[in-house]
Amino acid sequence: MDQDEKKIKVAEAALEYIENNEILGIGSGSTVNCFIEMLDKVKSKIEAVVSSSEKTSQLVKSKNIKVIELREAGKISVYIDGADESNKFKQLIKGGGGALTREKIVANSSSKFICMIDDSKYVGVLGKFPLPIEVIKMAQSSVAMEMIKLGGRPILRENFITDNGNIILDVHDLEINEPIKLEKFLNNIPGVVTNGLFAIRCADKLLIADDKNIEVI
Ligand code: 5RP
């Protein structure tokens, strides 16, 4: 099974986690796009969606499902999203699609976070996937210097501006042995809006697609 087929399989498995009369949080990315594609099957259960990106909002609206603001929703019962990497503690790297800030906000406002990945993204130590950091443009070089001090190699994501009007630095070569500690440290650097570590608010359930099955941990 190739990676795209696994994305479809894991997205299908995530449909099971939608409860009745639900206000659903939805993340961003290609796995999420597969998930949204399938929402027709369970549309009657969904009252409204809180979305993590302009792209997701567009796709959800194209399914004739209502998109509401987080402030109108209050607490969300289930948040469904993909990730770029996960370790066995369900601590994640996210932000490959650049929607990390709104994803972190919605995940943090949700009672349950269901994360969908394929087995290539399940790793022993986080950091092979470059860690995305959303940064206010003015702080590009000062944040980059801090990343170099940490042993990372920051690369500006070319031709990319987030939904919030900021830039992304993708930090290569970090071996992240203490994700919570690093997430907190990065949060404290002036100019950092959000870092792509989802370790403080990690996933509650991880659905991992391999060639044959969906493993749930
Ligand atoms: C977007 C994300 C995505 O969830 C992550 O990049 C995984 O994407 P995909 O499902 O396309 O592999 O964090 O900001």
Principal-axis shape equals globular
Distance N to C terminus:
21 Å
The unique ligands bound to this protein are: ribulose-5-phosphate
Helix content: 25-40%
Q: What is the C-alpha radius of gyration, as a whole number of Å?
A: 17 Å
**β content, as a range?**
25-35%
Largest sheet: 6 strands, mixed
Count of helix runs: 7
Question: Which sequence of SSEs, written as H and E, runs from N to C?
Answer: HEHEHHEEEHEEHEEHEEEE
Q: How many DSSP-defined strands?
A: 13
Query: Strand sequence of the main sheet, in spatial order?
Result: 2-1-3-6-12-13
Low-confidence stretches: none
The average pLDDT is 96
Structural class: alpha/beta
How would you characterize this protein structure?
- This protein is of the alpha/beta class and 217 residues long.
- It has 7 helices and 13 strands.
- The chain has helices at residues 3-14, 30-37, 54-62, 70-73, 100-108, 140-149, 179-187, and strands at residues 22-26, 46-51, 76-82, 85-86, 92-93, 110-118, 131-135, 153-156, 167-172, 192-195, 197-198, 205-209, 214-216.
- Residues 27-31, 81-84, 94-100, 103 line the site of ribulose-5-phosphate.
